[in-house]
Amino acid sequence: MTLMRSSPTGRTVSARAKVAIGLCLILLASPYASVSISQMKSPEDLSDIRISESSSRTNNLIDVPSWKVNDAWSYTGTLDVRDFVTSSGVSTNVEYLLGTLNEQVSDIYTMNVDGTDTLVYRVDGDGYYEAQNINLDGNNGDLIVEMSTEEIVRVSDLAVIEQNADFDIDFDYQIWWWSYTVHVADLTVDQTYSPPLEGYDFPISVGDEWQTDYSYTIDYSGSSDYVTIPSDSSGQNSTSWDVVSQGFPGVTYGGCSQSYNITNYDDNGDEIGYKWFCPAIRGDVRSSYTNTVGFVAEHELTTYQPAGRPKKISVDLEFPLSPLDYQMSAWVNVTNSGQPSSGETLQVRYESGGVVQDVTTAANGSAFLTFDTGHSSDDSDGVGELGSHGLIAWISGQRLVGVSTVIIDPDVHEVDLVSRSEGVTVERTRANNTVTLDSNVGFNAIPLDQLTFSVPVVNRGIALSPPTTLEVEAPDGSTSSTYIPGLRSLEEMRVEVIWTVPENQPFGEISLTFTADPDEQVASDGNRTNNQGTFGLFIGRLPTASLSIPSESLTLSEVSFNGVASYDSDGGEVSCEFTIEKLDGSNWTSTEDDCIQEYTWGDDGTFLVSLVVTDDENDRAHAQSYITILNRPPEVEIGSDQNTVPVQSAITFDIDESGDSDTQNPDAPIDIEWSLPCEEGQVGERCTVTPQDEGPFTIGVTVMDDDGDTAEDSLTIEVTNIAPSDPRAEIWFAGNRMVPQILGENARYIVNEGDVLSMRGFADDSPNDLDSLEHHWSPDAEQKPDLILSSMGHQSEVQHIYETSGQHLATLQVVDDDGASTETLIIQFVVYNIVPSILPVSNPLPVAEGGLMQFSVEVSDSPNDLPGLISCFDLDPNVNSDSEGNATDDCDVESQSLAHSWEDATTAPSSIVFHVTDDDGASASVVIPVQINNLPPTPAASASEYKPTEGDVIVLSANGTSDSEYDLENMLYVWDLDIDVDSDGDGDPSNDVDMQGRWIEVSFSQEGTKNVRMTAFDEGEGASVTLSIQVQKEPFGLSTLVADYGVYIGLVALIAVLLVVLLQRMRAPQTDGSTTEKADLLGRRKGRKVSMDDAFDDPDYDPFDEERSKDGPKKMDAEGPEGGTSESPLDSPEESGPEPIDPELSDAFEELGVESTEEDESELLENVAVSVDEALDNEDIEALFDD
Fold first, then answer.
1. Radius of gyration in angstroms for the set of CA atoms belonging to the chain, rounded to a whole number
2. Pairing with 18, which of 340, 549, 579, 1034 sits 20 to 30 Å away (CA)?
3. Which residues neighbour 1081 within 8 Å (Cβ) at sequence distance 6 or greater?
4. Which helix (H) or strand (E) holds 1179?
């Protein structure tokens, strides 16, 4: 464990190194120590002296504890570095660090110590200490100390053999949002002691004292950019300890209410620390230690966590006290969960005598042995003993130990009753405040103090003492006795004697005498020289404190105050300790033997001065008083280099003289605030202002010192007039301020025709002239120079509209009430023409060809351009009808409204163009899609005869077919004479093009139903209608024969004709025969004339039947049916006329003297019937088929 000791180091280390190294050294100090504390008790009605019934008999042997691996202690602590920092010269405001310390037993093993094989503990520890928000060399941050320790402690008496510690010291600070860590130092300290330091001299008893002379070596290693690592050192030193009291340690922890205060002293006898040893936790419950470099470390126990101890080892000695070279009997006992454990092999070590032997426990869990106690002293010099040595028993494999201490005394008796004066403890109760008296407090009292003496009687012999009495003689000479039972070796009996100091008790030394066995009834007591003990203290009076101090004084004045009137009524000198409240609220303390003190306050305020008067008996009296320190007001005076200044011109004022003799801020002794805003800021030693009004101008200044007192001064100058200046303008349009294209004096703005412009004018002048300024605007100075708009005030605003494009100039001149004016401000305007625009046009609805399309288009432009706009429709964007410009800028219709129709969907455009042009030639156009839809024809067809006979010629007509006028004129009529017959051989009988024309003549050579389809084609897909013709079989006759065998007959006739021609050429011409044959031929070809009207009126009428010809033709009473639509349109082939007769055949007819076939046919037709074209014109045919 960490133990207290004096340190020989620290005197050769630099001031900065002391901060870091001192932190390390103080952390090596013991956390186990103690101080005297106050304890409250209720007052009791006490007689002058009485022996308390609470007197107790105790063994009082506080022997060395046995530790186990994993025993752990946790502490909270502080490192008080105020005194050290004051002497180190380091610039910092740190006073103490807060932190924690944790220690734990990590191992038990043997090692060689000064040539002796020694059983030791290894104790590992770690600590963390931090001081937050401190200043170190001008930086605010946190000082952090982290450490890890290792200590080697002797098992027999807890003496420290060596200590090793590693320290990591960092300083963390922050600048703005960035954090920085300054690595102050890494330090390793290794310390060894020879002989080991005995911080305890077991067994412990109040009044024990011991002293050790030892050698030390300290090795340092590490690195640091800020401190110098100390050099290794070695030397000799001396330290001592004293068990000064037993009682409450000041830390509430279970089992520690009766702890032992062990105080440590350096080689000069000065106290350097203390610790409170608590047997219940096997260690220190509280400690305080002062390092030689000035640190004060204090630790208090927070938790003790002992390792589990199901198996325990105890060592019982025959006697705790032994003469020299005595054969001592001992018993080693092993229990497991409270039951004896047999067969356990242990090693018993009496290291001071070199005794090491193995023993084994019997069935009762105990092993017996004897050993020679020897005659060796221990490493410390104690009173009344040669040495104290530990007898250890341990099981090495399980790292379990048990230990007891035997005291070797060369002067040992069978019985030796001792009244231990050094063991007396005294509690003093004064005004409900109870303290345990010690050398620090002082052994003294005053009348009415209640003193409680705890008087010990101990048997320093080895045998049981017979019962006897203890006689106590009071300071007034009265005596009383109490019973002392028999005491075993080193057993102690404490008797509490309570005495209340009488009110009239004279001051002076008094003594309390107590005698064990006053009647000498114990014959076996071998040393009666120590049976009587005496304890003395001083009874005095409290001193009287008198403080003389003025009630008021000025800052920076030396104030003298004193306590010379203080005195001690019981005689003797008094010392005066003055505590003075400083400016920062902290206290400054000074002790003056002459009781006179001087102090100077640098700032005003009310401060407390306290006086503590201490007499020779450490009794104290207090006095205090407040003093008011008055502030000295500041001084100030204004100066300037100018007496007059033009308005709106800058002038600078200075502080010629100022000061505050008692300021606490040397960099800014006073706060200066000007009465007006300054260019440099309203706070400062200089103020530059710009007066805005003509006339007298006064500026003032107020100064304030750090105590809040103020002083004022002022200065007045004359401000002269100036003409208006800096004319400027703003141009606004539609509520927005326009940005000029060119900045500066000749600003140029880009605007549009017709824009309503707001022109705002400004100018600078003194505030008293602003409202009287006259603004003269000429918004169109070049084109309308006579147009002048004027207004008065700080600001002017006029409106203007430019109606023509191009450049325009506006001017502004501002005149004040004295006739002074600004320069003329010229503003340029570039006026752009507004291009006409066309409002969105909804697409017109589709119309049928020939239908009327009507719609209107709306346009916009500047108001002055609207009347002169030219609006046009280009009805055919693909044709440049006016041969000017392009194809889309024709003006086919000049209007904003259009009413137009297109007859043919094929030739109609898909879009038209509307364009509008203003007087500047700017135009806009829009393409308007139009949709002219084709109307499919409605087909109609009829026949002149629906039941013709085979070979009859009938007329088929498409009259009644309807469509647009344009399409009717260009309609194509296609006839398929029999949709059930594939006449063109393409596999589809319903798409044949047998004939074309609006009217056709046809005849059918075979009987049956003929489905005739007529398809009318415009530019679209066309439409069809079907007629059903019932062809009747022709009665047999020439016509039938010709119809059936006409081809063959024709061929035979042709052959015959050719033969005749050939024979004729071979013969001479015969005029008669030829004429006869020709006449016969003509006779055959000529016949009766047939009327076409009759043929169409009655299809059954046969002009060649004599009987039916008499009845005349019948009228038609029905029309043919309509049919469907053809699948695909066909191109209309040209109608072919009758085929011409072969020229060779014609020549043959001429050689034979016979007319040509064409001539004969023509003549025959003329004689028989006229042709359809000659007999009927178009109107006749249409009338014929009209319904």
1. 72
2. 579
3. 1154, 1160
4. helix 1178-1185
Instruction: Check: CB of residue 865 under 8 Å from CB of residue 831.
Output: no
DSSP 475: T
Positions of the chain with pLDDT under 50: 1-47, 53-54, 292-293, 1070-1097, 1099, 1101-1175, 1187
Question: With b meaning 16 or more CB within 10 Å and e meaning fewer, what string describes 1143-1177?
Answer: eeeeebbeebebbbeeebeeebeeeebeebeeebe
By the 8 A CB rule, do 477 and 70 touch?
Answer: no
Length of the chain in residues, anyone?
Answer: 1187
- Predicted local confidence at residue 570, as pLDDT: 81
SS (H, E, C) 1007-1035: CEEEEEEEEEECCCCCEEEEEEEEEECCC
The one-letter amino acid at 1176: L
Inter-residue contact 293 to 276 (CB < 8 Å): no
Tens of pLDDT, residue by residue over 573-621, are 889 999 999 988 889 888 888 999 999 998 888 999 999 998 887 888 9
Cis amide linkage into residue 203, ω under 30° from 0: yes
How far is 319 from 416, CA to CA, in rounded Å? 14
d(CA 1002, CA 978): 12
User: How is 1098-1165 classified by DSSP, letter by letter?
Assistant: -TT--TT-HHHHHH-PPPP---PPP----SS----PPPP-PPPPPHHHHHHHHHTT---HHHHHHHHH
CA distance 730 to 732: 6
CB burial of 898-930 (b: ≥16 within 10 Å; e: otherwise) equals: beeebbbbeebbebbbbbbbbebebbbbbebeb
- Given a contact cutoff of 8 angstroms between Cβ atoms, the answer to whether 772 and 805 are in contact is no
Cα first-last separation, the chain: 140
Residue 828: other Cβ atoms inside 10 A: 16
| Residue 722, pLDDT score | 85
Token pair listed for 488: 């075993």
d(CA 318, CA 327): 10
Contact present, 300 and 285 (Cβ < 8 Å): yes
Burial class (CB in 10 A: 0-12, 13-18, 19+), 723: middle
Instruction: Report the C-alpha gap between 450 and 46 in whole angstroms.
Output: 8
Q: What is residue 1068's predicted lDDT score, i.e. its pLDDT?
A: 53
Helix boundaries (H) for 178-303: none
CA–CA separation, 476 and 499 (whole Å): 11
The set of long-range contacts for 81-84, using a CB threshold of 8 Å and a minimum separation of 24, is 81/19, 81/22, 81/23, 81/294, 81/295, 81/296, 83/294, 83/296, 84/18, 84/19, 84/22, 84/293, 84/294, 84/295
| Single-letter residue type at 792 | M
Q: How far apart are CA 582 and CA 181, in angstroms?
A: 34
**Residue type, position 1144, single letter:** E
pLDDT of residue 85: 58
pLDDT of the residue at 1089 = 43
If we measure between CA atoms, which residue out of 608, 607, 588, 599 comes closest to residue 556? 599
Spatial distance between the Cα atoms of 918 and 836, rounded to a whole number of angstroms: 7
CA 190 to chain centre: 48
Q: Which pair of structure tokens corresponds to residue 920?
A: 């500047």
In three-state secondary structure terms, 260 is strand
Helix, strand, coil shares, percent, the chain, to 5: 10, 45, 45
Distances (CA, A) of 218 to 9, 135, 164, 267, 850: 9, 31, 10, 19, 124
- Residue position matching structure tokens 């008796």: 413
CB atoms within 10 A of CB 822: 22
**Which whole-number Å values give the CA distances from 47 to 331, 448, 497, 502, 509, in the listed order?**
49, 11, 11, 10, 21
Q: What is the pTM of this model?
A: 0.51
